[in-house]
Structures are given as C-alpha cells and as structure tokens.
Amino acid sequence: MTQRAGARTVLGPDEIGRALTRIAHEILEANHGADDLVLLGIPTRGVHLAQRLADRLADITGIGFADRVGALDVTMHRDDLRGRPTRAPQPTRVPAAGVDDRVVVLVDDVLYSGRTIRAALDALADLGRPRVVRLAALVDRGHRELPIRADFVGKNLPSARSEHVRILLDEVDGADAVTIEDGAA
Amino acid sequence: MRHLLTASMPRDEAIGLLDLAEDMHQIQDRELKKLPALRGRTVVNLFFEDSTRTRSSFEIAGKWLSADVINVSGKGSSVSKGESLRDTGLTIAAMGVDGVVVRSGASGAPALLADWIGRPVVNAGDGTHEHPTQALLDAFALRRRIHGGAARGKALDGVRVAIVGDIAHSRVARSNALLLPALGAEVTLVGPPPLLPPAAADGSRLGVRAEPSLDRVIDERPDALMLLRVQLERQAGKVAPSAAEYITGWSLTDERLARLGDAHLLHPGPMNRGLELSSRAADSDRSAILEQVTAGVSVRMAVLYSLLASDHPSAELGGAR
After folding, report:
1. I need a surface site. Which of A74, A185, B196, B209 has the fewest CB within 10 A?
2. What residues contact residue B315 under an 8 Å CB cut-off, 6+ apart?
3. Could you tell me if B112 and B140 lie in one domain?
4. Nearest-angstrom CA–CA distance, B275 and B230
C-alpha cells in the first residue's frame, strides 16, 4: 500500500466495493438489461475497474461478461502530447464482436478536466460506431474543462485544483482506497 | 534534440521501442488505420539512394500517425544540380519541417545532418555504416516469432542468430550486430572470408563471433538465420566469390534448409531467390520475411512517435544519440 503521509482517505475498500456494485445496477437499469453492453476501461486503473464491473454484472445477470470487457488506450488521441514528456501508449483490447451498434460504457477512475474522455471518444470513433456511449467514473472531482459529464459516478468529490486525488486499486497498488491530499504538502 | 542514428542503444531503451512498436502494430488489425498523434507535424523523407520498401515504409508510418510526409529523392532534386548535403538539409529545415528521415550512400551523412539542421533525424541507411530501423524491425519480427502475443517487455536472451552474407559491406549486419547482442542474443556472422569484417574475425570487437562456414553454423542448429542480400551494385571490382561459389558455400539451398531444423528465416529484402536462399526456403512457414515488412511499419511508427510527438521527449524512449 502506497498511501502517503498527509493523505486523507475518502473511500475505503468497502465503500469502493459498494460504489461499484451500485454502478453495475445503474448500468443495467439504464440499459434495461445487459443486451449489447460492452465495458471499455481507460488505462491504467480504468481497465481494472471495468473488469470489476464486468464481474459484478456477470454475478447479477448470470451472463458471461468475459468477452464484453476490454481496454481503450487514449494516448495517441490526447491533446497534450506536445507539451508533456513522451507518453508510452498501453494496449487497447476490444472484444471480438467489436463496438458497432453496442452500448459502450467507458470506465475511468477519476473524472477531472474531461480531456481524457474527449480523447477516449475520438479513440472509440476510430474503432467503430457504438449505438450509445456512456461514462462511468469511480470519482468525479469536478473542474471540467470540456462539456462532458458522467452517467454513473461512484462518489462526487468536491476538491480544490491544488489538491491531489489518488485512486489506489488492489490490482496495481496492493490495496483499495481513494485519498485526497493538499497539493502544498 | 534526439535522433535515431545508430542501433547501438541500451537494452531497456531497445525493449521500450519494441514495446511501443507492439502498440503501433495493433493498427494493422483496424479498418481505420489512422492515429492523430503527429497531426500537424511534417516529416521529409530525404532519399539520396534508391529505395522502395524503406521509403514506403517510412511514408506509411508517418501517414498512419497523421504526419504530413514529403518525399525528396536525390535524383531530380537540387542535389543532382550540385547542392551540398548541408545546404539541402538547411533548406528543408528552413521550410519548417519537424523531422528528417535520411537515406544516403555516404556513411555518416545522417549524423552530419543531425548536427547541422536542429531537427530530429532518423537514419534510414547510410552507406556501409548502419540501418537502425532495419535492425529494430528484425528484432521485432524475431521477438514476435519467439514470444508470440506475450512479446511485450521481453528481450532475445540466449537466442542464437546467424547473419549470412557480405557482412563487411552490410549496414544491416552492422546494426543487427549492435542491437541483437544488446537484447541478449548470440550473433554469429557468416560469410566468405574476404567479406567478413577483420575486427570480428580476429576476436570480435563487436562482441559477436565470425564463422566462414555456413554448413558448420547450420550443424549448430541456430534459432534464426538472417540472409543478407547479395548486393551486386556494391560488388563492382571487389574481391568476392562468383554467384556459383556463393551458392555452393553460403546459399540456403533446399538441402541446407532440410538440415536447418526449425530456425526462423529473416531477409531484409529485396531477395534474390536461388541466390541467398531457395524459393522453398523463402516460401516456407519458417520464413518471417513478410512479417519483417509489416514489422517495419510498426517499428518506424514507434521511432517517429518517440522522436516527434513531444516537444520534451523523455529519456526512456527512442534511440540515443
């Protein structure tokens, strides 16, 4: 676990688990069932969250979701490639059936400026034409710079721009937590 | 300013570039082969030597990354009117291009250009010196052959590669002799003694082994055999074997293919069937020759991306100066 000193825990493992279960139910409710659902996580942590949501959807519906979950890397579509050090892309994995005419739920850990999602929509358009695209985020911390909103949110977390919101997941970080810390710290 | 002038690079950097090429390789499976990463960037392919596959490969790589790609060839340009390399380079740079891919018959020309023009330069083959993207695509194709879909992050540790042909005059051999050992491969240079480099022959300054007999190397059952093109245009007046002697000693004939076992076959192309290798060898399932061509686009996309995408390229990706 890599939680730093001065960081305040906003969500613990149980709360993260409950938030994901709730999002899974909301996805099914909004879609009137599991038909055509495809989950695409945005690397790194969005991919693990998408997998967890897929596991929950499989539990709830009794339908296998293994071939309905994937990863969507947005690196090549970012609008800040020039200004930042070279970013290494991560693999994109799209279910064999593709995204055409599917209901694609993009899954990310934190919704912040909205620029990652803008890039994700472009990346998705290169792969095909989904019937509907929805957005699920574990945390919405505000400060949008683009007209983008999430359809499913685990936790609204009002924050100052100077604060750091960190999502820790067991698969990557060894434990589940959402923390917030003062940028000055 | 960063460039790709040589295939000599640290192991981690080589693996990073190959992994990046794996990401780029995914575009092959797509209907829409276009990524916006280099939108608004302009790349000039400055080719002073004939080349079809390398130039087209760089052109496709640049275009799939949305860069504007302009081809300038030596023939028919101001170069044939006597303009110097420096003036040509400065003129192209003054037009506002972001990167230059250069192929030249003169060893060292890309390095000179890199010093002069203040833009990232990619060496697409210079004289008998180096051809770094060829070595990278060879490593990429071989890594995929060996590790399949789980190639990411992997090197070529313990993989035994024999490079066969006119080693002394081959920039492909030189770049591979630099890159493959950095990835952990054991390289043997095979060819007629007059065409083996003296440094490798007398104790291997490159850290690779030289062996004149292809038959002995085949008996050792290497993991991969890289057959170099017999470069007729570079042989004029040289001490070299005749075609008949070459076939007898160093061609991958059907008989040698049968003894070779399941080694992967590589060839940088264009190949002379019946000279460097038999048609049966070229068309066998051991041949990775067309995979090398596909790999070329992915590797060159990775190189262009790592040199041109960011105004502040990180140290981890891309060939070192």
Report:
1. A185
2. none
3. no
4. 8
SS3 A142: coil
DSSP letters along B10-30, please? -HHHHHHHHHHHHHHHGGGG-
Does the beta-carbon distance from B20 to A89 stay under 8 Å? yes
CB-CB under 8 Å, B306 with A86: yes
SS (H, E, C) B112-137: HHHHHHCCCEEEEEECCCECHHHHHH
Identify whether residues B136 and B212 lie together within a single domain.
yes
Alpha-carbon distance of B107 to B130, in angstroms, equals: 8
**Per-residue pLDDT tens digits for B129-162:** 999 999 999 999 999 999 998 999 999 999 999 9
Asked if residue A44 has a cis previous peptide bond (ω within 30° of 0), the answer is yes
Q: How confident is the model over A158-173, as pLDDT tens digits?
A: 999 999 999 999 999 9
The answer to whether residue B315 sits within a structural domain is no
Answer whether A88 sits within 8 Å of B312, measured CB to CB: no
B210 and B267 together in one domain = yes
Dump pLDDT digits (tens) for B243-299: 899 999 999 999 999 999 999 999 999 999 999 999 999 999 999 999 999 999 999
A145's tokens: 């710079």
**pLDDT exceeds cutoff 80 at B110:** yes
Q: Do B314 and A76 touch (CB under 8 A)?
A: no
* Per-residue pLDDT tens over the stretch B193-237: 888 877 545 445 567 899 999 999 999 999 999 999 987 666 655
Q: Among candidates B90, B136, B141, which has minimal Cα distance to B113?
A: B90
Which helix (H) or strand (E) covers residue B290, if one does? helix B289-308
**Which has the closest alpha carbon to B57: B111, B124, B109?**
B124
Nearest CA in chain A to B308: A82
Average pLDDT of every residue of chain A = 94
A127 vs B: CB within 8 A: yes
User: Which of B2, B15, B303, B305 is the mutation pick for testing A, counting most A CBs within 10 A?
Assistant: B305
Cα separations in angstroms, B202 against A178, B176, B185: 62, 19, 20
Query: A98 and chain B: CB distance < 8 Å anywhere?
Result: no
- 8 A C-beta contact, residue A66 and residue A51: no
Structural domains of chain A, ranges and CATH numbers in brackets: 13-77+92-161 (3.40.50.2020)
> Would you state the pLDDT for residue B30?
87
Q: Across the strands, what pairs with B188?
A: B162, B209
pLDDT at A9 over 50: yes
Q: Is B292 annotated as a binding residue?
A: no
